[in-house]
Amino acid sequence: MDQLSQSLARNLKHWRTRRGLTLDRLAARAGLSRGMVIQVEQARTNPSLETMVKLADALGVDMTALLDTNQVPRVRLTPPERAIRVWSTESGSSSTLLAGNCDQGAFELWTWRLEPGDVSLSAPHPPGTTELLHVTAGELTLIVDGEIHPMPTGYSATLSTDVSHGYRNDGDITVEMTLAAYIPSARPSD
Length: 190
Prior knowledge:
There is one protein chain. This protein has 190 residues and is an alpha+beta fold. It has five helices and ten strands; from the N terminus they run αααααββββββββββ. Helices cover 26% and strands 33% of the residues. The strands form two sheets. Strands 1-2-3-10-5-8 form a six-stranded antiparallel beta sheet. A four-stranded antiparallel beta sheet has the order 4-9-6-7, with no helix packed on it. The protein is globular. The model has no long low-confidence stretch (mean pLDDT 87).
């Protein structure tokens, strides 16, 4: 987690400065307190996945831009040990950011593991955000804007995630899925 906090701090300051945002303005855009943004930028906290998503959305970058600085012009290989576990529970559920790019909006590739009974809920992402997911094990309960969609092994989905959404495991076996997310560039309008 220390490596994650250091990368996040360094990259948050880089992108905030590049976007011309003050700490106050970034905090307002992200819906966070100024104190939280300062703590993250100074690597004094391990922020939640929701906080990191809010910061990335407010800056118009993907999570990879906040967590990694090794940008290779045409190809960037990410060995397994460099994938970043962003969310986890004591029961073993987790989400891992495998790769991403933010040249023209954020495009991210994730693996998810949900143990029985676990859930991950998300606030709406910016307008135009789209996710593709594929269930490789178990049966996922997909929740989009309060509507439930059962997804057994082998099912795939395309969904707009500019509404509240979440992933839940109501079954008895572990759910595994691969998720790709596209978040359009959010250029500061003020």
